[in-house]
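Work through this:
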Amino acid sequence: MFLENTVNHEEQFGWIEVICGSMFSGKTEELIRRLKRAKFAKQNVEIFKPAIDTRYDEEMVVSHDSNEIRSTPVPSAANIRILADGCDVVGIDEAQFFDDEIVSVCNDLANRGVRVIVAGLDMDFKGNPFGPMPNLMATAEYVTKVHAVCTRTGNLAQFSYRKAINEDLVFLGENEEYEPLSRAAYYKAMLDQKVKKLDVQEPQELKSKPTEENA
């Protein structure tokens, strides 16, 4: 269970919270919940998201269950360092899409006394650690891993399986393009995908021996 840190006014350092998991696991929903609690407590809160994420809205951070909170889209992590001046709490959604500087930005803010809450995919569609997320998780005080429900087995899902035929690492999509799968279901799906890609070639026909006329 995640327990929010108590504020010690004698210690002027903040902290980093990372919320990670697969698609459809409730990462953004949990991020919004924590940020709204901070707003209710009259804290100065700013929320940022990558400018490329326009799936639901250009400015709002929106969860899959249509919960939302206003944010500032930024093209790079460096913009957050400037725009977050004077904040008590900073929220960052879809952190995996930011450049590696997001790690130093979050640590700089925490060192200035800011509570930083980051949400993002911990693995890409190939099952590999996604962008800056591993380093964010390593330097964070709190890491919360949330899970979706596997659409094929009903078990806990931690993999984001891409149904669409696209090999780009960054490919925005929803349930038409992705589905959450458990380890077993993901392994089977990836195996089936590899089998379909196999190029089965027919054996070449044996060349006939040259005839006397062609000799």
Summary: Residues 15-146 form a domain with the Rossmann fold fold (CATH 3.40.50.300).
